[in-house]
Amino acid sequence: xxxxxxxxxxxxxxxxxxGQDVIIKTIQNSIRYxxxxxxxxxxxxxxxxxxxxxxxxxxxINCLDIKKNDACNKCQNCLDAINNTATDIIEIDAAxxxxxxxxxxxxxxxxxxxxxxKYKVYIIDEVHMLSMGAFNALLKTLEEPPAHIIFILxxxxxxxxxxxxxxxxxxFYFKKITEDKIILKLNEIIKKEKIxxxxxxxxxxxHSVDGGLRDAISILEQLNLLSEEKIKLEHLYLITAxxxxxxxxxxxxxxxxxxxxxxxxxxxxxxxxxxxxxxITEEIIIILKGYxxxxxxxxxxxxxxxxxxxYNEFKKYLNSEKVYKIIYDLNNNLIMMRNSTQPxxxxxxxxxxxxxxxxxxxxxxxxxxxKNEPTKKRTQKTTQKTNINEQKKIIxxxxxxxxxxxxxxxxxxxxxxxxxxxxNKDYKKTAMMLLDAKVVAASIDHLVLTYKYAGMVxxxxxxxxxxxxxxxxxxxxxxxxxxxxxxEWLQLREYxxxxxxxxxxxxxxxxxxxxxxxxxxxxxxxxxxxxxxxxGDELIEMKG
Length: 544
Fold this sequence. Notes:
4 domains; 25 helices; alpha/beta; Zinc Finger, Delta Prime, domain 3; globular; five-stranded parallel beta sheet; Helicase, Ruva Protein, domain 3
């Protein structure tokens, strides 16, 4: 019967464990000096050896002929453990057994002495998935366990565990396995399995798995099944979210040489290949870091001649300031990309933002040059944008004038209903756009939304009718919607916070016939005029 490689090469002794030397030494010493704890907590990312070490530990402490603080793998107890027939080693998947009843049943059984082993060992995998009631039931067991019971709790997310559980366990934190050690293990398997593979592929596998050896072995197996000849990098790119470095470099060159059509064509190609834009973003950061090192004459081992050629091209268009900025922007938005329903759009907007930064420098020069020109010369460029800004900010003013927490609470509670429209072909696009927004203020019939990027605000404004219709459908009431970039909203908000501190009332402004508010004959209060002044001209965008 065929056995998957990660199972075939699963560790059978402590010496087989890769990259966790300190943990293994500590555990072996506890066996050697017979200083066993009643509960252990193994934390770490997937594929780093948590479950494997738990099984080896359970086998070793029950071995009938233990040698050098490790199991002999020959006695009956060891053979039962290896063949998964040991009734005294109980593995529980907390993801599917996470309720109070399951843990109570466990508690009822722990008082029974082991069948044939010295210790009865409970290995609870993904323990963070237990419900709070189940944790409370487990806590009582951990406080006063019988002498023949040992618990080993394993988790990828220790921050989700109650501190009362963590404090009652001996804690071990499994490190991500280094790329060098993953490569050594892969080469060992490749030699035994007689797999034909290029060296660059092995390096790329080790790089792509983020310290998880099990994932690396699984990818190697997939590649071996896919390719009937020698495994090449192109095969790896077919089955993983990885993108060739050449493509990443081309994206950056298109970006900084202003070839936007080529840039978005390349992004779309990657999208339709099913590539992960979070992975692409991480790769861009790594390549730009490599470029910075290259410019400082620091040798980059993993960079081939093709990448060096690209780095030399970068020198024509990129300075350190630009590189640091895009690295900072990309890195700061990785979490949002991971949580977003539209990582591709966020990725595109991040790139555009870096182009706009350069454009704004030019715009500042234009503003300086035109500052002393007659107003009439500038009117043609700015009037349209001014009217749009003022209209939006008047809506903001009126929303805040009538805003109440109960309205905001109602909208926030119903906002989740947007997710039900993601499967509806007529509303999917609009629902995705609205889900990326944050509702920051609400009155009985007005809503203020914010987006992380100006590009998303523009997209929202372009499709305001569809957005309004879907919100009205969900809430059952007609709303006036307005959206702002997050930074702009925070600036505008300061004025109203100041009004509130001074116990000043926010005056309502006319929302129709916006141009009339600009005329000297329009009669609005002094506070409202001040608001209009503050919310107006200094935020005008100059478009040449």
